[in-house]
Amino acid sequence: MLLAPGMALAQAGIAQPLTDVPGDATRGKAVAVNSDLGNCSICHHIPVPEIPDGANGDIGPPLDGVGSRLTAAELRQRIVNPTTLDPNTLMPAYFATEGLTRVQTKYAGKTILTAQQVEDLIAFLLTLKGN
User: Fold this and answer.
1) Which pLDDT value is given to residue 66?
2) What is the number of domains present in the chain?
3) Using CA atoms, how far apart are residues 115 and 43, in angstroms rounded to an integer?
4) Phi/psi of residue 39, each to 5°?
5) Residue 68 to residue 126: CA distance in whole angstroms
6) Cα gap 36→17, rounded to integer Å
7) Handedness of CA 85, 40, 66, 127 (dihedral sign)
8) pLDDT digits over 83-125, tens only?
9) Residue 10 located in a structural domain
10) Per the domain annotation, does 88 fall within a domain?
11) Which of the residues 9, 40, 87, 111 has an alpha carbon 20 to 30 A from that of 99?
12) Could you tell me the pTM of the whole model?
């Protein structure tokens, strides 16, 4: 995986934030539920009222309590490029551009999310402390 300058790969995560601006949970929630951005609910159950019952996915693990299970560094790794943890994952790399397979033409050489959107999404996911 190609990391931007200053990004360090931790045990199972990327310890250093991608931006100098802290993530904002409200903006991150908008990224998570937006079908043009994160679209997390297509694969994961997300416990938010913006996603009606039955509209959450069940391909990936539920995100209920993810903020209690994973650190910011671990979440960052899974969002930036989850293939470094599981080469066969179906989850897309939201902030990587090289070494990927099955990339839609419109995303070739581009990231799906900006660095700030990644940090905002992490801030939101860290608020999900329940079950």
Assistant:
1) 95
2) 1
3) 22
4) 50, 40
5) 7
6) 23
7) positive
8) 888 888 889 899 988 877 777 788 788 899 999 999 999 999 9
9) no
10) yes
11) 40
12) 0.86
